[in-house]
Amino acid sequence: MSNSGILHCQQLGMTYTEGPNDVEVLSEINLQIEKGERIAIVGASGSGKSTLLHLLGGLDLPTAGSVWVDGQELSRMSDSKRGLIRNQYLGFVYQFHHLLPEFTAIENVAMPLLIRGEDTRIAKQKASDLLAEIGLGHRLEHRPIELSGGERQRAAIARALVSEPNVVLADEPTGNLDVNTAQSVFDMMMELNQRIGTALVMVTHDNTLASKMDKRYHLEQGTLSEVS
Ligand SMILES: Nc1ncnc2c1ncn2[C@@H]1O[C@H](COP(=O)(O)OP(=O)(O)OP(=O)(O)O)[C@@H](O)[C@H]1O
Ligand SMILES: [Mg+2]
Question: What is the pTM of this model?
């Protein structure tokens, strides 16, 4: 399915059932992401941006339609296979950092490589290099609770990038950072994009950052439309 991009979805829909009420958050979303493409998703709070990213990353399953990663349909595989696909192809930066509290920064960042079966020493070296690059070289042994909010977010970004995935799905990755740190984190994602062709799908409220991406989509009333 090389003509369908590295990640794509068709007629994707998500309806949450809350007691007697069905809340349709996404409906009939079609999106195709090519290798190395950079996409921004913007939209009001509650419009479904996080929901869409979770579906694209296989963290949740849709109530309608399908998502394919490199031609493989996420809803049609076992949970363990979906986990493998996520580890192999995708990096995820959550809106809230989701680091594992009992592990240090370096252990959190090395984790995707260890899951992949990489040698511990090499995994830790790569994690430490990336953390240094992102300004956390002096915080390697800190646990998440011992990091500031911005430091946690940077560690979470390093964790998503360390395995050099085909696609990084980032949910407001720079939302809680000061202007300078936000810029350096954004530059780092762009550098990876250019160096190894990682596609980026980034939810952002920052129009300046959005304007630097190849395409911008607006999510409103459950549907996605491209904006120029
Ligand atoms: N697990 C859930 N069960 C029921 N409703 C949910 C659930 N998760 C999200 N929603 C609802 O779906 C809608 C979209 O939520 P989502 O988190 O995707 O929005 P968002 O665009 O990411 O917003 P924000 O910019 O505030 O992060 C919201 O109205 C929310 O209340
Ligand atoms: Mg959100």
Answer: 0.92
